[in-house]
Known about the structure:
Blueprint: H1 7-20, H2 28-45, H3 57-63, H4 68-82, H5 85-102, E1 116-123, H6 131-140, E2 145-149, H7 155-163, E3 169-173, E4 176-180, E5 184-189, E6 204-211, E7 214-222, E8 227-229, E9 232-234, H8 236-250, E10 257-262, H9 273-276, E11 300-305, E12 307-314, E13 325-331
Parallel strand pairs: 1-2, 7-10
Antiparallel strand pairs: 1-13, 2-4, 3-4, 5-6, 6-7, 8-9, 10-11, 12-13
Amino acid sequence: MVERVDGGGTAKAARAAKRRRPAVGEGPRGIVVAGVAVGLAGVMGLHRVIPNSPGRVGSLVESFLPWGGVVVVLLLVVALVRRSGVALVALLLPVSVWVHGFGGLFLPAPGTGARELVVVQHNVSDENPDPAGTARALLAAGGDLVALQELVVPALGVYEDVLGVEYPHHVVHGTVGLWSRYPIRADQVVDIRPRAFEAGWSRGLRAVVEAPYGDVAAYVAHLPSVRLGVGGLASAARDESARMLGELVRGEEVRAVVLVGDLNSTVDDRGLEPLTSQLNVAERGFAFSFPAGFPVARIDQVLARSATVRHIRTLPATGSDHLPVAARVSFSPLPASGRPAP
Length: 342
């Protein structure tokens, strides 16, 4: 006797078998996404333990830390496509680390304070084809202090003529300069030249500005450039210059300090730790400034002591390969001079 096969029963069996299959993405691929998410969280949260030798890998990673958020978004898309619950849960870790480190920079700019200076910073480029247009763009920012780097003849005369309309006080040493609405009582060259560089290299100045809220020691600096090659990040000269500048700031007798310049690094890079360990960085704003065509990092900085850098933003592009930045620096009601409290 031959039994008849029930088609309905066969369909039920197929559906049951389908239900017994593992969920999409809960296999090896979901685990891989979860593993990458945990690894990314470790890199962003524990970047200081990444060795800087060979090739200054640690500094290189720290220069692009904010872009970890883009990696998080890409992993989120993959996790959603794979419908991996494990990966989605694991992604909570790098999201938390990134928000803790950079989420505050997205907050709206605070209201204007009563004791503020607007500080404009720009590497104008020694190959700028339109220095007059660049100077006019900087005037439009309405800053109280304007710090410039890569000032060369004959463009220097153009900046002096155009900016002099609004800024009656200015000093230039080497290739860096400072323009101020307020009197400059003293100024001097700041020696931040690495030992291996030739004697004519001069990229630092210090000026005491008689601001409405008391004296401010304003430092303008252009740290040595870095290069990325097969051997890694070549930043030894920049790091040496940053250490020299850090020692000078540490010994500064004027309590309120503003350090402005092209530091050729981000504030997360350990190469700037001699500065960022004793100066406040911007509380809000990303202000990626380099390269101007597609900015990927802010290497133009405004840092402060006995003051708060409340917000930093980029300004419209000029003829330079950097974007200008403008920062609002708020000063506490402190004495005009005297050594800072330890």
